[in-house]
């Protein structure tokens, strides 16, 4: 997908003129990457979809207040990171346990578009090791402070540049570099025990 901001600005201008189909064009361009980011942040598919829907509603409500030169993708990601952060804090203060949590019914939560059907590819043991490794990384990222977590998700998963991340989080490219360095150090420390066990196997 092209990340040319002029495409989004044209849609914004059309939306401000009353062309509501322009919102559908923006949703078609940005819904999937936004949901992917939200899912990695909150680790819940339904919540990720809800948060992204809220962001698009807010964007529509604010459409007439936005400047013509607004970087729409940065606006959307900024609004989403704030919502994810607030949602994550609320969830930590109000933990819930579902009655069917231990049961694997084949409907585990994942981002839209990813199949959960069994694969004939990796062997069960290899799959288990891979799943444990991914779970350890997810847990370590989840425990990072918001500013570091956001930088990691935007850079390593959304593949945004330092400049693009800086626009979203409101800091310089050097500041983004510093956040990523600090995040890597914290992740390295958090995963040191797990990495040591894995290499000993």
Q: Topology of this structure?
A:
Layout: H1 5-16, H2 21-42, H3 45-62, H4 72-93, H5 124-142, H6 146-157, H7 162-169, H8 173-200
Helix pairs in contact: 1-2, 2-3, 2-4, 3-4, 4-7, 5-8, 6-8, 7-8
Q: How would you sum up this structure, described in words?
A:
With 201 residues, this protein is an all-alpha fold. The protein has two domains: 1-97, RNA polymerase sigma factor, region 2, helix turn helix motif (Rna Polymerase Sigma Factor, Chain: A, Orthogonal Bundle); 121-201, Arc Repressor Mutant, subunit A, CATH 1.10.10.10. Helix content is 70%, strand content 0%. The protein has helices at residues 5-16, 21-42, 45-62, 72-93, 124-142, 146-157, 162-169, 173-200. Helix 2 (21-42) crosses helix 4 and helix 7 packs across helix 8 (173-200). The relative contact order is 0.10. Mean pLDDT is 83; it is low at 98-120.
